Amino acid sequence: VQLQAFGGGLVQAGDSLRLSCAASGRTFAGYGVGWFRQAPGKERDIVASISRSGMTTYYADSVKGRFTISRDSDKNTVYLEMNRLKPEDTAVYYCATRPAGTTWNNPESYKNWGQGTLVTVSS
């Protein structure tokens, strides 16, 4: 399965943005999906993850209450709704799949990394 993240852009602090992660080649219905981000000069960090059923979601403390992850199996797409954006949210955002039974916040649990999409939040 190949993933592609899109929807990034330049916004102002306090604005909202929705990222999409679309799968091609095959469905990712049997996998959990996670969103990561990497700011310049920093490591890639987990942002949010959703179980394969969509019933369970996980969030990094830094985005809890502001970001929402969801999935639409019919569209084979996972979304990241980002509200009240802050300049420190500026990063390249990536999505990847995670098999069931693996740790949601461990990058090594993930594979099929897609190309990222840049989010820039100005102050």
Walk me through what this model shows:
The protein has strands at 2-6, 9-12, 17-24, 32-38, 44-50, 57-59, 67-72, 77-82, 91-98, 117-122. The chain has 123 residues and is mainly beta. The strands form 2 sheets. A 6-stranded mixed beta sheet has the order 2-10-9-4-5-6, with no helix packed on it. Strands 1-3-8-7 form a 4-stranded antiparallel beta sheet, with no helix packed on it. A hairpin with a 4-residue loop joins strand 7 and strand 8 (77-82). The chain is globular and about 40 Å long. The mean pLDDT is 94.
How many strand segments? 10
Low-confidence stretches: none
Task: Please give the radius of gyration in angstroms.
Answer: 13 Å
Could you give the order of strands across the largest sheet?
2-10-9-4-5-6
Helix-strand pattern? EEEEEEEEEE
Supply the helix-strand structural class.
mainly beta
> What is the average per-residue confidence, as pLDDT, rounded to a whole number?
94
Fraction of residues in H or I helices: under 10%
Strand content: over 45%
List the helices and strands and how they pair.
Layout: E1 2-6, E2 9-12, E3 17-24, E4 32-38, E5 44-50, E6 57-59, E7 67-72, E8 77-82, E9 91-98, E10 117-122
Parallel strand pairs: 2-10
Antiparallel strand pairs: 1-3, 3-8, 4-5, 4-9, 5-6, 7-8, 9-10
Short description:
The chain is 0% helix and 49% strand.
Task: Sum up the structure in keywords.
globular; 123 residues; 4-stranded antiparallel beta sheet; mainly beta; 10 strands; 6-stranded mixed beta sheet; 0% helix
